[in-house]
Amino acid sequence: MITESKVTGIFCIADDFCKEFDTELAKKSVTSTKESPQRRRKRMMSDSEIITILLCFHFNSYRNFKHYYLGCVCVQWKHLFPKRFSYNRFIEVMPRCFVALTMFLRLVCFGECSGISFVDSTYIPVIHNKRQYNMKVFKGIAEKGKSTMGWYVGFKLHLLCNEKGEILNFVLTKANVDDRNDDVINTLTDKVFGKLYADKGYISQSLFGKLWNNGIHIVTGLRSNMKQQLMPIYDKIMLRKRSIIESINDMLKNVTQLVHTRHRSVHNFIMNLLAAMGAY
What we know:
By secondary structure, the chain is an alpha/beta fold. It has helices at 4-28, 47-57, 65-76, 87-93, 98-109, 182-188, 205-213, 233-240, 243-254, 266-279, and strands spanning 116-127, 143-147, 150-162, 167-174, 194-197, 216-219. 42% of the residues lie in helices and 16% in strands.
């Protein structure tokens, strides 16, 4: 169970960011006039409180967000959140913090590239294979793909991290999108330089050339049917350090509960994904 002092610490970090974010957003927003006045009434709960509740969910042992909100937030932490929404209202308002939570991840939670990066993808099933034809929430959005564990229906999360285990960037795609897709790689490696270590699924001569022109040297292992080539001992050692990003995927799935089949809307699925990475 997360302590109240940690909840307060997370809230302070989120609140400081939200204040600066609102200040910068106000500079870019259109000013109200008499002909078109704008309502700027504040909600009972601020964005920082909503972000704190979303992040703290992934530190607890709860497997159901409704039980967590009604049993923990509304009972044990009622003095920390005196002006609380009802559960239904919280679920309704939660997607409105999407932009603030995304910027919070990029500017506060994510790390910086140091010249050594690791890239990998992991599967995110959203429904059991036996119920794929009865899918309603993700119908027309989720696709069927295959991972090392077999076929699944859902999405694929592409992650990029540094040697410290800090997430640098991520891309969420459908399950049938290749890891070497140009749009995925260009988005992931937007602010990356130096060495990029990947598994054998990223072997591509054209991909190597494109990244090399952008100042990135991608290093992968060799398949058994490929001609053996000499590799510096440093690159061999760093390829063994790919367990860093494998550990991140494991924590996102088994600790922060990123994967489950109880999603009731696409918006809440995205918010759960962002909050899980923020909690990590």
